[in-house]
Specification:
By secondary structure, the chain is mostly helical. Helix content is 70%, strand content 5%. A two-stranded antiparallel ribbon has the order 1-2. Strand 1 and strand 2 form a beta hairpin. 19% of the residues are buried.
Length: 160
């Protein structure tokens, strides 16, 4: 329902902006053929935007920029929470078996959302980078614990 409401203003903006992008080429009709005059491919005649087109463009850009900033800030906070959760899963995984396996997807998700927040120019750049760092640290810790577990298991099996 909400997308239908936004469709009508977007259609109006599209129609207003479409008139600014019309390129006119001179044509000549000679006999039975329509001949296009040769024009350099780098030469395009553009029209200035009128007042209403500029107003609509400013409104649209401002609205989308604000929404993108909010989404980027949410991604940064999510990255931070996922990074802390990944580190917590590593620590709790030492006490509770199999819980350590939850750290891998949490860490990957923290790194992905942190990178996405940075690409979208978040205002909370510290949270995004901290979430990425915690996710990377959790993956490194998981790898070290895995290597240590294999070494201990190999030493135990060889002593039998």
């Amino acid at each position: 329902m909400r997308s239908r409401i936004h469709f009508i203003p977007l259609l109006g903006i599209y129609l207003l902006l479409m008139s600014a992008t019309i390129v006119k080429k001179d044509t000549a009709y000679t006999g039975s053929k329509l001949v296009m005059q040769s024009v350099s491919s780098t030469h395009v005649k553009a029209h200035k935007l009128n007042f209403f087109q500029r107003l609509a463009l400013k409104y649209y850009l401002k609205k989308n920029k604000f929404k993108r900033d909010i989404n980027a800030d949410k991604l940064a906070s999510t990255s931070f929470v996922l990074g802390i959760s990944a580190c917590g899963a590593i620590l709790l995984g030492l006490l509770i078996p199999y819980l350590i396996l939850a750290a891998v997807p949490l860490a990957i998700a923290a790194m992905a959302t942190g990178g996405s927040a940075e690409r979208n120019h978040t205002q909370l750049i510290g949270k995004a980078r901290t979430g990425k760092a915690l996710g990377l640290g959790a993956l490194i810790a998981f790898g070290l614990i895995l290597v240590l577990a294999v070494i201990v298991l190999a030493a135990f099996v060889s002593s039998l």
